Amino acid sequence: MTFSINRRTLLATGAAAAAMTTIGTSAFAKADKNLKWAHVYETTEPYHKWAVWAGEELAKRTDNRIGIEVFPASSLGKETDINEGLGLGTVDIIYTGQSFAGRSFGPIAIGGAPYMFRDYDHWAAYRDSELFKEMAAGYLDASGNHVITLTYYGQRHVTSNKPIMTPADMEGLKIRVPNAPLYLMFPNAVGANPTPIAFSEVYLALQQGTVDAQENPLPTIQAKKFYEVQTNINLTGHISDALMTIVGGPARDQMDDADYEILMTILKEAAVGATADIQQNEAALADWFTEQGNQVNVVDRVPFREATMPSHNGPDATWTQEQYDKLQAL
Prior knowledge:
By secondary structure, the protein is α/β, with parallel strands linked by helices. The chain is built from 14 helices and 9 strands. Strands 1, 2, 3, 4, 5, 6, 7, 8 and 9 form a 9-stranded mixed beta sheet that branches. Helix 1 (7-18) crosses helix 3 (46-61) and helix 3 packs antiparallel against helix 12. The longest helix is centred in the C-terminal third of the chain and has 35 residues, at 257-291. 46% of the residues are buried.
């Protein structure tokens, strides 16, 4: 069943979320207990704003018994650290990429594979599908942690200091990728040289020439200011990416069923709100980057897709052929 909230509620909560970009506000102090929500994104990004909204909303709906304190920008560790922290109980909720979750349960990484989705509607169908529920159940069995929902992260594009118009233009290109195996699939398929670097270190790596390029959605390229140190934004759209909202097993075990249901409802509402914001930002940013002096290159994605698709069920695939076929049939 597709999860949704009405437009009036979304607009009202969106306005409230936009005003909340810091952590440790008085709303958190009023709660008897605060869950720790960690992520690696900036306070200006929709993911953080809606996480803060979720904390205040949880306090309201539980009569201030439970709130959430949000720790952005890798302040509680890099993405690998916060994933590990879920099981240890050092963090209670995280945003994380599907490939990072795939370290615990390989098949759940399928949504982070390059050119796995035809378009946004295909991605949304997967989010709302029985297949995704099966993936979440498998992850729970493997890790003890609870995947609640997906938030749209945007289409990932390559930035560089030269135009990237064909796969041949990426031959030998030293490109930063997240430190998770599945992110190697696209650069390897087109002959680039993928270099895992922590998210918090990417700007400096680009500035100093440690790497030649990186790949991320347009809203992230803006928020992390990568456009300042890269001249070209190449619209490869190679991954329709998403963040998972995950609640740690220890945190779930300490909550009664009624409070946990409230938390899950709020986390899903926050995902709807952040997804809407990302879609809106994504639609407007190509023109914004052009105004900043960047060259935005519209590329023919067909050759990139054709180069990559043979890898979908190759040696790097962490899912079964049956799971792949189910996703493609959505």
